């Protein structure tokens, strides 16, 4: 794979970044919690543009993320099923996910509930790799994924999309956005997706799991956002999003098992330019992750909620920026299992400095977090970049991070231990970046060493009578290191894109490979445009993985071939077609859980730019 990319992409960027993305990716927000020119961002990153999302034909955000470098996924079935996203070999709970700056995720299981995030309401996505706890606090060990919903700026205009596909898939989105006046703009969007699906389990899953029925899903989602300029340089606004997913799953042959999950976000914000050098912003936000399970083994309800107040100040010092951030986050849990009910507060203070002088780029950040449950944690990072030429830059960085124990790891009966500590990690990396016209290349080597990992173990420091089957405990160490390469170029009118990850996600305690993570994975793609039409081919490749920590259950490697095309009927109207898994590859990302076979998607987009 590495030799193929070296030959095909003499200078390249990332799989997600197509030629059309140059403008969309010119400014990145997530890496420094402020707008930065992409060429000045020291953290490794990927931007998935609105065009990439539109032509992807992806049913879910997980399908979209599966194609990005540095990312692997595991899912218990098809769209609507529980999924995990691994960044650079880290766990699903070791990354932070934001929607328009609002943090989402479950306080009991850790990490985002990916199936509830409505892809149809997303404008673009920023993925920033590496430790970002010094800016975002707990859990930003592998990276941060920020999802930006439909924009409010521009002329008032409607959008709509309609699509149908295999397994009875149907998608519908409609919305309107833009400026009502010089001072007021808004966005309002709604979407519905559904599919009849397929059986998420295979017969080998056993009698207590397998059910031959189709496991379909339905999801309805709504998003609204408004921005008002109250005075020159001063804006206030609000945003709200809600999605409700009703998805079937398998837990035996005799019951119609299903999950009903709801994702909610609400944010109020204000920002203003206090002076020529001082910009201030405040955001009050709330997110909810609610889940109801009706299964053969019983019914349960778990609702988790996060409330965050963030006060951020940026001070311009010439070309440099000094940043000061104060935050308070409160997590709450309401569950059928009463012992999980509770709350915890985290107060945080952070500062960063971004330096830019001639060919030199640098940044440093430090953050202090105090939790009412797990105590104090201080994290920091430092990075330096040097522009060898206008096109070529080399970066180096070092940072620390931590992950907070979940409510399950602290309090779940027979599993949690209240004295469990946060996981901690130290990451060092060096990268080379090249960009000259249509030719782009990035190559990054990283080494992330984690300690005090919370894993399920049979040896518990508590009474066996209360934890007879083991517990969650800080016993493991792991090292995630590897090389990630991405690139794009244009040859004879054909845009070539690709990425490869060569990594070793290793459990240092056992010497074994971390579960569901491969040592090699990557992607290759080619796209050709002729007048109003575009045609493309993509491959997604993954090496062998193991489904368990003991490395006994093998998940064979796989390669997927996807084909797509689109035609611009008019300025505002586009038709597209996509053929995913064209070779009908039978593969698994979780043992004995099925994945979609060869699928066809046909869609129409109106008003998308």
TrEMBL record:
Q: Where is the TonB-dependent receptor plug domain?
A: 40-144
From which source organism is this entry? Answer: Undibacterium curvum
Protein name as catalogued: TonB-dependent receptor
Name the major location.
membrane
Q: Which residues form a coiled coil?
A: none
Ordered alphabetically, the record's keywords are:
Cell outer membrane, Ion transport, Membrane, Receptor, Signal, TonB box, Transmembrane, Transmembrane beta strand, Transport
Instruction: Name where it's found.
Output: Cell outer membrane
Q: Which residues form the TonB-dependent receptor-like beta-barrel domain?
A: 252-581
Q: Which InterPro entries match?
A: Beta-barrel_TonB, Beta-barrel_TonB_sf, Plug_dom, Plug_dom_sf, TonB-dep_rcpt-like
In terms of SUPFAM superfamilies, this protein maps to:
Porins
Family membership noted in the UniProt record: Belongs to the TonB-dependent receptor family.
Q: How does it sit in the membrane?
A: Multi-pass membrane protein
């Amino acid at each position: 794979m590495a030799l193929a990319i070296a030959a095909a992409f003499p200078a390249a960027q990332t799989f997600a970044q197509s030629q059309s993305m140059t403008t969309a990716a010119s400014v990145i927000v997530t890496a420094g919690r402020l707008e930065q020119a992409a060429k000045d961002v020291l953290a490794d990153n990927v931007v998935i543009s609105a065009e990439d999302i539109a032509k992807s034909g992806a049913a879910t955000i997980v399908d979209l993320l599966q194609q990005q470098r540095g990312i692997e996924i595991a899912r218990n079935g098809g769209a609507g099923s529980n999924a995990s996203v691994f960044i650079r070999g880290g766990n699903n709970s070791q990354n932070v996910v934001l929607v328009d700056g609002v943090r989402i995720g479950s306080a009991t299981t850790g990490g985002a509930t990916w199936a509830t995030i409505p892809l149809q309401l997303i404008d673009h996505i920023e993925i920033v790799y590496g430790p970002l706890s010094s800016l975002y606090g707990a859990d930003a060990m592998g990276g941060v994924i920020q999802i930006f919903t439909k924009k409010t700026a521009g002329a008032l205009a409607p959008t709509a999309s309609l699509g149908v596909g295999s397994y009875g898939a149907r998608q519908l989105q409609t919305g309107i956005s833009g400026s009502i006046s010089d001072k007021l703009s808004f966005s309002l969007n709604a979407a519905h997706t559904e599919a009849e699906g397929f059986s998420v389990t295979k017969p080998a899953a056993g009698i207590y799991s397998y059910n031959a029925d189709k496991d379909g899903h339905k999801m309805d989602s709504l998003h609204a956002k408004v921005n008002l300029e109250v005075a020159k340089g001063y804006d206030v606004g609000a945003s709200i999003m809600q999605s409700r997913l009703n998805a079937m799953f398998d837990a035996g042959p005799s019951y119609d098992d299903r999950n009903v999950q709801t994702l909610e976000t609400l944010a109020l914000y204000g920002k203003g330019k206090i002076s020529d050098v001082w910009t201030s912003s405040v955001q009050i936000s709330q997110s909810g992750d609610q889940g109801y399970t009706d299964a053969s083994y019983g019914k349960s309800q778990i609702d988790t909620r996060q409330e965050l107040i963030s006060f951020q100040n940026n001070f311009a010092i010439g070309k440099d920026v000094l940043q000061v951030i104060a935050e308070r986050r409160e997590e709450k849990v309401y569950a059928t299992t009463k012992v999980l009910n509770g709350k915890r507060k985290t107060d945080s203070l952070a500062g960063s400095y971004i330096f830019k002088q001639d060919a030199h780029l640098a940044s440093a950040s430090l953050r202090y977090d105090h939790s009412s449950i797990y105590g104090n944690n201080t994290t920091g990072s430092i990075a330096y970049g040097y522009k060898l030429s206008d096109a070529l830059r080399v970066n180096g960085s070092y940072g620390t991070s931590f992950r907070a124990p979940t409510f399950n790891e602290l309090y779940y009966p027979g599993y949690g231990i209240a004295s469990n500590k946060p996981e901690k990690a130290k990451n060092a990396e060096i990268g080379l970046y090249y960009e000259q016209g249509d030719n782009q290349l990035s190559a990054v080597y990283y080494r992330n060493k984690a300690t005090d990992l919370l894993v399920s173990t049979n040896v518990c420091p508590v009474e066996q009578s209360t934890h007879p089957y083991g517990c969650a405990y800080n016993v493991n160490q792991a090292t995630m290191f590897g090389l990630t390469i991405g690139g794009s170029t244009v040859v004879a009118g054909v845009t070539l894109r690709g990425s490869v990850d060569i990594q070793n996600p290793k459990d240092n305690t056992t010497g074994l490979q971390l579960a569901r993570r491969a040592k090699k994975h990557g992607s290759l793609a080619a796209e050709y445009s002729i007048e109003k039409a575009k045609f493309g081919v993509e491959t997604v490749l993954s090496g062998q993985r193991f489904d368990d920590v003991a490395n006994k259950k093998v998940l064979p490697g796989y390669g997927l071939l996807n084909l797509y095309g689109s035609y611009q009927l008019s300025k505002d109207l586009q038709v597209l077609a996509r053929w995913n898994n064209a070779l009908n590859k039978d593969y698994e990302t979780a043992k004995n859980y099925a994945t979609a076979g060869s699928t066809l998607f046909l869609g129409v987009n109106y008003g998308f730019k």
